[in-house]
Amino acid sequence: MARLHRKELKHDEFVDIVDRVLLYVEGHGRRLAVLAVAIVLGSAAVGGYWWYSGQQAEKASIALGAAMVTFEASVQAGLPSLPGQGTERVFSSEEEKWQAALEEFAAVREEYAGTQAGLLARHYEGVCKLRLGQQEPGLAALEEVSRASDPEVAALAKFHLAGFYQGVGRAEEAEKFYRELSEKPTATVPKAVALFDLAALVAEKNPAEARQLYQQVKDEFPDTTIAAEVTRRLELLPEPPQP
């Protein structure tokens, strides 16, 4: 399969996903850290879990968080890699960053196989491979995770797959995922986010449906910040025909 360059991944951007989830959650008066989609849900030991399992989950969550710091690190093209201060890292190129993150996620997946952290690491392995132009193994990883029994992580993989397919012109496949995610929302991909992206996808071919979807977001989530963006998108759509 042909190498996929990063510029083609127009819609499959982690930051874009986080931004829209943040908009949704902020509107409901709750705080969500940038790494919220990467933490291990229930990683702390709770009743019914063995102490060892709780410790492993906590270690896995910390390791995954460290890999996410690399994933979200800054890039300063043309400069040598800088260690930064504290946990911050700076890379000289996007490719260098994605490669470093890929290696860290692979290590988490191998060491903590069978945990939610390991599953999330596998998901981000797929994302990093797509960023590096490794299309076949990247898609294989995301498709594998999309079939996982963990609904939160599976939804995140489906969302990335939808974004990828939308970015490369495979609209039907993207639409299938967005509709599924809107019908079965999760904490990682809220209903408002799935509906918003579905509306953006169908806007060109079916502006009437896009208008309906955007309006649904406004009606169901009126007090969220994302509703303001929906209003702007509605204004950009062609006016419906007069009866």
Write up what this structure looks like:
There is one protein chain. This protein is an all-alpha fold. The chain has a domain at 7-169. The chain is 61% helix and 2% strand. The chain has ten helices and two strands; from the N terminus they run ααββαααααααα. Strands 1-2 form a two-stranded parallel sheet.
Radius of gyration computed on alpha carbons: 19 Å
The unreliable regions are 1-52
> What percent of residues adopt helix (DSSP H or I)?
55-70%
Query: What distance separates the N and C termini?
Result: 49 Å
Q: Enumerate how many helices there are, as a single number.
A: 10
* Largest sheet: number of strands, sense, barrel closure: 2 strands, parallel
How would you state the average pLDDT, rounded?
Answer: 79
Task: Please render the helix and strand layout as text.
Elements: H1 14-27, H2 51-71, E1 74-75, E2 90-91, H3 94-111, H4 116-131, H5 135-146, H6 151-167, H7 171-183, H8 191-202, H9 207-220, H10 226-236
Parallel strand pairs: 1-2
Helix pairs in contact: 2-3, 2-4, 3-4, 4-5, 4-6, 5-6, 6-7, 7-8, 8-9, 9-10
